[in-house]
């Protein structure tokens, strides 16, 4: 699915990208603090709520968004507005597919927060529609990607730790979400496709990015899952995989949890990539890695190489800039988050859910357009989260 381009774009160059939001995004601000005359510019044009236009107005009043931001009475009105270029989907996982489908069919480019969909069949359907309609589509990667991932990939390409032979990626949560939230919360509700696996699938993305060429698909996948008693979604999931380069095997382990931090030191996330001549360690928040270490010569260095990662851009800006760059270059997918990677992650998660008998309601799992609203209204989780959508 690489090297896909748009056949037509209205303007020769996208200088100002108009965004519309479906759902809730805390601390969203596409208005650039930097004034780079050569860089992309963004405008948050509209917000829509599944509940009412009044709810959308409450969202606009509650967050730092431009005063000129419009509110729409429903999602359909927003995606069909000629003022909107790109639709940002920030609804619960259960609604990603139907919301993205609505926007693509209306002729809008789409960025959908992870996880892209509930299952691989839904992701395939969205990619097919985006390609047919020549529209940009990307799974959102937030701040976790730019500095830490690019630096890690550079070190691996340069052979800094030799041949990769083992990868560990753990993503947890600071406080025990399951202890303090009800079964109707966004992350714990089956009707909203909750659970650690879909919410913390960044662990799988990190593993795939650390692999050498030719070893992208696992030859073996085994998993264990601890389920949240109140709703049956996964509270903690561990996935062990084996990848083959043709001459050797690479072992990988991904862990995702809604009830514990990743490590005993309280780190919310860490990634360890072990090679034949050293290892790379990444620590920090799950979306914003803060420190990268390189240990060389069988870890014998008394002082390892260390780089402190500091994202200078405001939240979401690198992601928004990447979208603008891709649209300007007539790309349908981002090299930073290609369709093939998103699809493979969905396929692995489908297998893990099957192994552990985790299913969501049929109306959430379907890859067909919804002819009626999903049975679980989005505002059902407001009381436990305080979020408005």
UniProtKB/TrEMBL annotation:
Residues 18-139 form the Gfo/Idh/MocA-like oxidoreductase N-terminal domain. The keyword Transferase does not apply. One of its GO terms (molecular function) is nucleotide binding. Keywords: Oxidoreductase. Its EC number is 1.1.1.179. InterPro entries: Gfo/Idh/MocA-like_OxRdtase_N, Gfo/Idh/MocA_domain, GFO_IDH_MocA-like_dom, NAD(P)-bd_dom_sf. It catalyses: D-xylose + NADP(+) = D-xylono-1,5-lactone + NADPH + H(+). Transmembrane segments: none annotated. Residues 151-280 form the GFO/IDH/MocA-like oxidoreductase domain. It comes from the Eukaryota. Belongs to the Gfo/Idh/MocA family. This is D-xylose 1-dehydrogenase (NADP(+), D-xylono-1,5-lactone-forming). It comes from Aspergillus nomiae NRRL (strain ATCC 15546 / NRRL 13137 / CBS 260.88 / M93). The lineage of its organism: Eukaryota, Fungi, Dikarya, Ascomycota, Pezizomycotina.
